[in-house]
Amino acid sequence: MQPKGLIIVVPLALAAALSLVLVSSDKTFSLTISLGALLLVVAFVSTRLSLYLLVFSMLLSPEFLIGNLTGGGGATGRGITIRFDDFLLVVIGFVWLAKMAIHKGGTPFLRTPLNGPIMFYIAAAGLATLIGVLGGRVKPMSGFLYWLKYYEYVFLYFMVVSAVTTKEEARALVFASLVTCFLVSLFAIAQIPSGERASAPFEGEMGEPNTLGGYLVFMLAIVVGLLLTREAVTNRLPLLLLLVAGTVGLMATLSRASFLAAGVLILSVIGFMAPRRPILMTMVLLGILSTPLWVPHAVKERISYTFTQAEEEGQFRLGTLRIDTSTSDRLRSWHQSLELWQKFPLWGTGITGGPFLDAWYPRVLTETGLLGLVAFFVLIGSIFRMGITSYRHATDQFARGVALGFLLGLTGLMVHAVGSNTFLIVRIMEPFWLFAALVVKGFQFAQANEPSESEASAPSITVGMNQPARKPAFGRSRFAKPNL
Fold this sequence. Notes:
Helices cover 67% and strands 4% of the residues. By secondary structure, it is mostly helical. The strands form two sheets. Strands 1-2 form a two-stranded antiparallel ribbon. Strands 3-4 form a two-stranded antiparallel ribbon. A hairpin with an 8-residue loop joins strand 1 (63-69) and strand 2 (78-83). Helix 8 (209-228) packs parallel to helix 10. The longest helix is centred in the last third of the chain and has 34 residues, at 360-393. It is globular, with a radius of gyration of 27 Å.
């Protein structure tokens, strides 16, 4: 930002914050206002610096529960959870849009291959919610707030695509995300002696181990992608340490959906790398087959609990085999979603218009109907194609490794979503859309480095450095005799 702008913005923000603090007797309110003014100044000074703050706050920020929502099926008895990074994203986004408006040449939403599928997905969810409000199934406030969650994540995507202009900036955001993942992994490991399931920092009274598990699966996929790509990084030791710490933290969550996602992730790695490194992949496969011998007892007990829980009401039965109540509830939600979908096949019930379902695919089908489900898979297919294209056209190995890790992570999250609302959880979706933007930027950097077709097909007319160009004699034909 220009110095003249800073001279105006900084005093105004500080003066407004000071005046509100002086007239308020609430210390919490005063602290919030002061923090908001500070973030506003930081966002005006540097969008990139505010992005780093946002990266670290994705998993290292507190949450606030504001009120209970009543009357809206999926929102009944549930509060809206607001995190510090939600507040930070609003502030940064507002300032970013303001700066784009001030600089008339700025374009807030750059054209990318994902723009159309993203807008289709958001519009489908918004239309379904609007129809649900008109039909009396959705309370306007609850439906609108939850619909904003869909838009919040992709807003981060557009902001990163616009703010990152060099490979060095993209690489720095990747490293900041990896540092955050390492700190979160250490926090998860520190909870092991307590005997409780590990969860992310600042999760409130009731932790969400499944959320932490999904996040670690995605971030470990990024690490694996960088490790499997030759010359992606000069020193692999920090990534290996992060891989070990993240794996231990993942096991500490005892999240079966995350274990399933991690298993599919490993199988994807084996399938991708087997033709290139058959011996190494064979060793990895043998290590997987021997997991009952070396994984912690708590992990084995948690997995076997799926079929060994004491007999209770509400369990599904497969012959003589009993399914534990938690898994039975998720299976029951799939059946329930199909029944509701038959009543509202095209538009669904609208967001929060149906019962709460702790599984993503039946929730999408129930709340947004066939239109929303198609829009979601169109978006996922476009993201997959974008990742593959970025991987194939990457001009440097680091970008190639990030693209490979992103594809592996997306595969893992698709499996994780079978037993959780993965694509609606803020602590998973913010890192996901951050890396989606970085993968798109990697492809754009590759396109910028490639010569245009006209330049590639045009004949070379350059003159050698040591041979000056020869000027033809005026009026001399090719049959003229040379000067003697």
